[in-house]
Amino acid sequence: AQSVTQLDSQVPVFEEAPVELRCNYSSSVSVYLFWYVQYPNQGLQLLLKYLSGSTLVKGINGFEAEFNKSQTSFHLRKPSVHISDTAEYFCAVSELGRGAQKLVFGQGTRLTINP
Amino acid sequence: EPEVTQTPSHQVTQMGQEVILRCVPISNHLYFYWYRQILGQKVEFLVSFYNNEISEKSEIFDDQFSVERPDGSNFTLKIRSTKLEDSAMYFCASNRDRGTDTQYFGPGTRLTVL
Fold it and tell me: Chain B: residue nearest A32 by CA?
């Protein structure tokens, strides 16, 4: 069975500073990897996903993530954050080759941007 | 841009009552899902649905839960006899194809069981 660990429950950052949100996963088979964002009082929105190919994946709003198979990690980064990036961020995995695609989520990381 | 919608946004019910949470997935999507998030905890998979039947369900999805696509547009989650521990945010999601296709999530229904 897969599992996802987000190492930081909260990350406070100053505006325009860089940020990294950490995600590690565990699975006995190959997986797809996702980062979703949840703004206050809204649903989950896909930021980016890794399916195959280049290990550096670029997403919306200037975010990117790097898949590292040897370290089973998929950390999310942004070089310069804005107040509007304040949200909860969820890392998720799904197994390749299964039927309907079940997502397994991490605990979430609350990103708070301070002016 | 098409989106997944859910109603109601907030449902308050008494323990032991039945509730039905409603979702309208994106119109050309074929796979449908329910997830829940208990306050302060991670988002958990409940059930997936395709071709008018359940594809997979988690151990949370016991006999008190059921899903239905009654009319080709709505996708519902019914909890027959609610318990206090059913209090959570319930998210509906859909996608057009399995595997690589992105799941689109609705805004959620907050269920409070008193």
Answer: B100
**Residue from A35, A102, A104 to probe the interface with B (highest B Cβ count within 10 Å):** A102
Instruction: Give the number of domains in chain A.
Output: 1
Owning domain of residue A63:
3-114
Task: Tell me which H or E stretch contains A28.
Answer: none
What is the CATH number for B66?
A: 2.60.40.10
Cβ-count burial A83-111 (b if 16+ within 10 Å, e if not):
eebbbbbbbbbbbeeeebbbbbbbbbbeb
Q: Is B48 within 8 Å of A101 when comparing Cβ atoms?
A: yes
Q: Each residue of B56-105: pLDDT tens digit?
A: 899 999 999 999 998 888 999 999 999 999 999 999 999 988 766 789 99
What range defines the domain where residue B29 resides?
A: 1-7+24-95
Average pLDDT, chain A: 91
